[in-house]
């Protein structure tokens, strides 16, 4: 069983910790345990409860009404939500439920059904990225076992690779993009998704791999002469120096353009080299791909 803090519940549900504490005082659906130092912690069951309540509350149900529902009634109400956003959030919650319980067969089944119904691109943008973003908070704070991260990411990685291999575009595009992850970055989901997006739009891609020294990227770039290079930074090693990486790229490959997306771009405040640009959100990434 995982032990979640009230901050974990806030990050996963979008409900402020202050509100969760009020719910505990007024209603009966949450009964956290406490550590020897009197700090609240919550079980898998309570995490699921908060996710379900947050979803129903967001789409019109009052907390006082939800508090009177049985678990079966709550499930029925959630399944009856007709709004598109509500349905997507319900599926994201199901994926989180499966992940924390390590029910990988259920996680994969939810994902497969969505891909079958909507296609891999919509599955990525509508349910995979939102769920991974919320789950990622737990990975960074060590509140779930790394094995759970590996199980989930490997399933998603397999789906992306299948999507990349099976996509064919009738569009002819002479643009070529070299994709790579620098030394210290092993998280491939973002860069694999970019590979899919580019290939599905007829753009030539060359994926060098993860954890690649800049000298090796330079070697391939000088031979293949891509129109641009692309990397996605999610959660690099502790000794990764972003500023040093940018300067090194500018010095070694001043004639090449590098586009960077991922969470690290959102917090970087120093000067960005003239041949480097950031895409700080999924919408910016999608807009950029459409412009190529």
Describe the structure.
The protein is α/β, with parallel strands linked by helices. The protein folds into 2 domains: 159 residues, no CATH class; 123 residues, Rossmann fold, CATH 3.40.50. The strands form 2 sheets. It has a 5-stranded parallel beta sheet, with helices on both faces. A two-stranded antiparallel sheet has the order 1-2. The chain is elongated and about 65 Å long.
Summary, kept brief:
With 292 residues, the chain is an alpha/beta fold. The chain has helices spanning 6-13, 17-26, 44-58, 63-67, 71-80, 84-100, 104-118, 120-140, 146-166, 189-200, 214-224, 242-252, 282-291; strands spanning 33-34, 40-41, 176-182, 204-212, 228-232, 258-261, 276-279. It has 13 helices and seven strands.
Q: Can you tell me the residue ranges where pLDDT is under 50 for at least 5 consecutive residues?
A: none
Q: Note the beta-strand portion.
A: 5-15%
What is the gyration radius calculated from CA atoms? 21 Å
Overall structural class, as computed from helix and strand content, comes to alpha/beta
Total individual domains:
2
Percent helix? 55-70%
Produce the secondary structure layout.
Layout: H1 6-13, H2 17-26, E1 33-34, E2 40-41, H3 44-58, H4 63-67, H5 71-80, H6 84-100, H7 104-118, H8 120-140, H9 146-166, E3 176-182, H10 189-200, E4 204-212, H11 214-224, E5 228-232, H12 242-252, E6 258-261, E7 276-279, H13 282-291
Parallel strand pairs: 3-4, 3-5, 5-6, 6-7
Antiparallel strand pairs: 1-2
Helix pairs in contact: 1-8, 3-5, 3-6, 6-7, 6-8, 7-8, 7-9, 8-9, 9-10
